[in-house]
Write a structure and sequence with these properties.
The radius of gyration is 23 Å and the shape is elongated. The chain folds into two domains: about 35 residues, YefM-like fold, CATH 3.40.1620.10; about 30 residues, no CATH class. The relative contact order is 0.11. It has a three-stranded mixed beta sheet with strand order 1-2-3. The protein contains four helices and three strands, in the order βααββαα.
Amino acid sequence: MKTIGAFSAKTHLSDLLEQVARGKSFLITKRGKPMASLSPVTPAKTQGPKDIIIEFRKKYLKPGKKFSDAEIVELKNLGRK
């Protein structure tokens, strides 16, 4: 991670953003003290309905286990929060 001063970062922001888009990261300092970091954003993994169901089954379903009525109501209410 390359270090850059706040004034220089402000002056060259568009160039820095182009470099960040290519994967570089920067530590922005003010009077030698680290103040912020500038790094690429990793896109959040989007989940479709199928992914959500698979994740739910892995988390809650055990082989041979059935949900009780109370557990179903609890999970239903949890989803409404």
